[in-house]
Amino acid sequence: MTMLxxxxxxxxxxxxxxxxxxxxxxxxxxxxVLGAPLLTLYAIWQMGDGIQLTAQFLxxxxxxxxxxxxxxxxxxxxxxxxxxxxxxxxxxxxxxxxAAAQAYAAxxxxxxxxxxxxxxxxFWELMAIFSTVVVWCGGxxxxxxxxxxxxxxxxxxxxxLKIGIEGVMVHTGSIEIQPIPLTNIDGWLILIGVxxxxxxxxxxxxxxxxxxxxxxxxxxxxxxxxxxxxxxxxILLFPGQQILIWIGLYMIFYGIIYALLxxxxxxxxxxxxxxxxxxxxxxxxIGTEMAINGASAHAFAxxxxxxxxxxxxxxxxxxxxxxxxxxxGGLYHSMPLTALCGIIGALAxxxxxxxxxxxxxxxxxxxxADQHMMMVWLLLLAASAGVFLxxxxxxxxxxxxxxxxxxxxxxxxxxxxxxxxxLAVACIFLGVFPEWLYRLLPYPVDYVPYTASHxxxxxxxxxxxxxxxFALLPLMKRTLxxxxxxxxxxxxLILSLMNRLICLLSCLDTALRSAFSRIFSIIWTYIGRHHGxxxxxxxxxxxxxxxxxxxxxxxxxxxxxxY
Length: 563
Prior knowledge:
Elements: H1 3-7, H2 10-21, H3 29-46, E1 50-57, E2 60-67, H4 69-89, H5 95-113, H6 117-136, H7 141-172, H8 185-197, H9 205-210, H10 218-237, H11 243-261, H12 265-286, H13 289-320, H14 336-349, H15 356-370, H16 374-400, H17 414-432, H18 435-438, H19 452-471, H20 473-476, H21 487-531, H22 543-562
Antiparallel strand pairs: 1-2
Helix pairs in contact: 2-3, 2-5, 3-4, 4-5, 4-10, 4-13, 4-17, 5-6, 5-10, 6-7, 6-10, 7-8, 8-10, 10-12, 10-13, 11-12, 11-16, 12-13, 12-15, 12-16, 13-14, 13-15, 13-17, 14-16, 14-17, 15-16, 15-17, 16-19
């Protein structure tokens, strides 16, 4: 281990970079934005496996760095995304957004190498804080409100995670990261806390709510880190939990349906993140070496092609100021490079042969087939067709083709184009040469994706999906509609019920006050009738009458005394 690694663990390099981005002179800022992720990537690949760095915290020995092939895989793609995202953003984004994004990436890399639950939680919260700042950097009222909702949702997830971790610490005395059985409330709380970050339904609407409100570059950063660190946490803590298979399948079809209903191009891609993370969660639930390899490979590939798609959409938004499919179309005339990169990303997410998505998604499907999970395999196959419908065709068709919107913006500035080209090349490179991806995976790979039967099956599936899309094109026409999601429950229904409850309590309070006032008035009138200035008991009585009453009272008293 070199002195550099001893002083600066990988995540700390990005944190230092985030601190420097603001104070440093503007001409030197790109050096920090691009140099810190590259230095981090170098440090990641200099570390050996096992525990590399420990420290004392709250009477616990925490493991700041524990390395393994799985952890290195995730840290590598996070560092790459910090670099490529920085390249895409550094000329257009504000310095505080660049700093927040780099701190956000540091949190993700910190989680990747966290050797214990305490360290993982600390970096987890670092991500939550700075990802919220990235959402707010969208700079609009919508971004401000979405950021608040995003922060609340992640606060809830963090609290559940913290309670679960403390429960594990109390009941086992261990803070080690290892598979946790779902036999008590501690494990369930940790699982729910992690699943909230993975955007698993029903608490998944925060993703489609917040990500599209961020800046064009902010959505690129947001797509890479939060959900994928949750995937890594699920692999480390809950591999082989079968409930994850069904949660993953639900996420897949939930994402497809909502993406098909959407009119906002960035919300389409946001829902497709949920959809793609569903594939990973399903693979983690299957839990075999093949499935874990597939989930890990899919996380790696997904970060690349999803960032490419969001860069393409972000470029359109940056150059046109529009994000609704109903307001776009025909942009391939003037934005050919952006359209080409968007199409490559769309092919990769659709698992088109010779793209990265074809390799990783096939590994997950094959793992289900190997375990004789016929229903799961069929559903994954059907889901591939759905992904092609909403992301493979719908996004590029409505944004770059369909009717001519009359807009003629140019391709975005050179740095944005360079970032897109880098990721587009990576999508194809990993699809053509999958052995480069295999080398990064946690387990040895003995899988050949390019067999004749697999190619024919996949091409047939994509072909019929394409025919179905164009056959149903009149029904796919986008309109200015709003898709209600589960967030309607806590954004509308609960608030409406609370307002009604407050109104009811207010009316009840008014009624009670009125009733008490009326009763008090009656009592006061009654008392005043006898004790007031004109009351019977306040009048002056003749002496004879008083004597008579005294005699009567004494007589009564005497009779009671005798008997």
